[in-house]
Amino acid sequence: MPAQLSLGVDDFRKLRELGLEYIDKSHLACELIDRPGLEVALLPRPRRFGKTLNLSMLRCFFERRERREDDLAHLFRGLHVWEAGEPYRAHFQRYPVIYLTLKGTRHESFEGCWEAIRRKIVVVFDEHRSLLEGGALSPREALDFQGILDGSASRALYERSLLDLSSYLHRTHGERVVLLIDDYDEPIHAGHACGYAPQILGVCRNLLGEALKGNPHLFKGVLTGVLRVARESIFSGLNNVSVYSLLRPEFNTCFGFTEPEVEGLLERAGLRARLGDVRAWYNGYVFGGQVVYNPWSILSFLAGGDAEGFERQLQIFVADLLSYHDVTRVEPEQVVHAFVVGLLAVLEPEHQVRSNRESGSGRPDVLIRPARPGHPGVVVEIKVVGPDRTPEAALEQGLGQIRERDYAAELRAAGAAPVHAFAVAFDGKRVWVRAAPSPGAPAAG
């Protein structure tokens, strides 16, 4: 296993400075630069495909730094964008950058969602507080800026805040702005799910429309999310927004791992012999004709999961709470099954624990389904060791059943990511657990 896996790290600078594993996606910056007529790129991709990490990389590359000690060239040496030469290096740390993430703005009510968005805008303005403190603003602009920071500004002022900030930065630095917006569609998801879609669509239409439509201060805009929102919903009239869906060839290798990249990871991990398994479990996406793998799933596979820890804890519970008589009756699997479901019930309400529920082509013993998309899901298949079934055979039978009957179907449909699979084998008070590569990705097609 690689010593420096980057599972869960979406801060490019932190990842590079810690020497963690990084699959080079800096050609995303090259593709943006290579399209001088492209003002705004909307890049919808599935969850866990490195969208936040890519925007963090773009920020590190494009963002202007005032202090000499903030030169980030060391982060890019050896990467594609740096080795591509001077035409691309000319854009390095050249532009003021506005980075807005709408991650975490989901709320049950419109008022709560709007308040979360407002706070995200405050964070952006606070990052550029030097404009206020350096005297770069007129008295009127300074008053508006302070109103954004202290919460006294009107909603209309917040909705045009990105346009105003880009104007201030352009005038101050003499370069147009790079605008990066991550999870632009999270409020829209929430609005549709919780019944306030019309109100939140209006807010997003105004906020993004003001920042993107005919903004003379904009060099490049990049928006990432899960949804390819219809143009008429929030991008009405924005002729400068180019949507690069999964079907288009542009940017098709910028998100997710290509097969050569996966082969390289497996080689470095000493797991090249497992390439066939990885293809079977994870080879599930085609972006513009290019087969790609989910980065989270691949890194989770390399990290190996924590089946050993699960086994240790389950062994303790079995030894303490199950009598040997209980699990040697005519149908011991029923006893063990009920016992495991009872242990897992503590995961409610963040996860729904379901027993013998139909999924795929059968009924898995246990499904642990997240209450919200984008969180892990788990399939557990339980087998009891007997005279004609060794622990090894029981574990292999359980994992084979999960795979062949596609027990992960319900979890995929619920948006669980990643999906883990465990086979559990019992023999009296002894227990074994084996993890499988995640069955969460659908077959390529």
TrEMBL record:
UniProt xrefs under InterPro entries? AAA-ATPase-like_dom (IPR018631), PDDEXK_9 (IPR012547)
Q: Which residues form the AAA-ATPase-like domain?
A: 7-235
Pfam families in the record, alphabetically? AAA-ATPase_like, PDDEXK_9
Q: Which PANTHER family match?
A: AAA-ATPASE-LIKE DOMAIN-CONTAINING PROTEIN, CONSERVED PROTEIN, WITH A WEAK D-GALACTARATE DEHYDRATASE/ALTRONATE HYDROLASE DOMAIN
The identity of this protein, by name, is AAA-ATPase-like domain-containing protein
